[in-house]
């Protein structure tokens, strides 16, 4: 094939421009129909319809997950996996179940991924590359990508990529390793007025542990975070609660640092149980791994996005304090991956907020869909056509993971 990199990139951007109105409509439609983790039936059907309208076979369901999907194109060459997220968050006063709304802008991720994926699929045979468009459900706490990893969805991937809307364009930002702690305190019930001395108050024990963790927070380093909710605090005020429970999420820059934090948080609840005479059960669940951003691939993405007029913030200027977690972290330990963030709202807007919901369907969000699609598609072309880049990507992966 005698197509230069520049020609191929111009062609793929023109393709995405042709589809720009339907990509923006796709983003808006997903935004208007927010769905929670593993229930994203509308979004998946809608994205599959977008592909079928463009003449590419697509159907909901993949690897045993109803709200995943997989579309493949090309027969030879490096396999570029483009991840589409589309789940929303509850309790935001939105139109979805449990007040769900797109407070993390995953409608933008889904539409941008569809745009990049479609354009790469159209050119795959001609340019001698392969693309897999992967619908990855339940990023918000459900770990859809972890299930897809286990099922083999990334087995023959050479690289994996997605974008995430944020206040600025940055080629890589820190994402933290996370874990969940389920706490159950067990005491003894008794009448709260006539015989409280016969009881052991499980809620009091849990609250002691909670305040212990909050006090501990004052000694954390900037990457160490803990947040928790009480999931059961008893049923009636006139009964001393026999059982109380809580779920905490703990995060740190690396898995090793997470381990240190876990031990300190555990000690708070064990100590509280001892103080109150209660019995404490602690159950850890794995969260997400920290994100290992592939540097050569991220630089290629940045160069492509800069070519579209986007201005980037130096990653060294992004403090670890602002980091969250993503299941793309788990992917990044298996496959060279990027998860650049793309500008969509002012710096003052908090993620997972009602304000973020409004920005996720705005002219800036629409621009992020189209630019994100183009920058990822051009980076896919770099992977297909530049042996030097793929070598550098693999070398970086070996040194980082
Ligand atoms: Zn998100
Ligand atoms: Zn989120």
Features:
401 residues, 5-stranded mixed sheet, 4-stranded antiparallel sheet, 11 helices, 42% helix, elongated, binds zinc ion
The portion of residues assigned to helices is: 40-55%
How many helical stretches? 11
Helices and strands, in N-to-C order? HHEEHEHEEEHEEHEHHEEHHH
What's the rounded overall pLDDT mean? 97
| Strand runs, count | 11
Global morphology: elongated
- What portion of the residues fall into strands of 2 or more residues? 15-25%
Query: How many whole angstroms does the radius of gyration measure?
Result: 23 Å
Kindly name the structural category: alpha/beta
Bound small molecules, which ones?
A: zinc ion
Please, could you describe this protein's structure?
The protein has a five-stranded mixed sheet with strand order 1-3-2-4-10. A four-stranded antiparallel sheet has the order 7-8-6-9, covered by helices on one side. 42% of the residues lie in helices and 16% in strands. The two termini are 34 Å apart. α1 (5-32) crosses α2 (41-53), α1 (5-32) packs antiparallel against α10 and α7 (295-307) crosses α10. The radius of gyration is 23 Å and the shape is elongated. The longest helix has 28 residues, at 5-32. With 401 residues, it is of the alpha/beta class. The structure holds zinc ion (2 copies). One zinc ion binds at residues 104, 106, 139, 164.
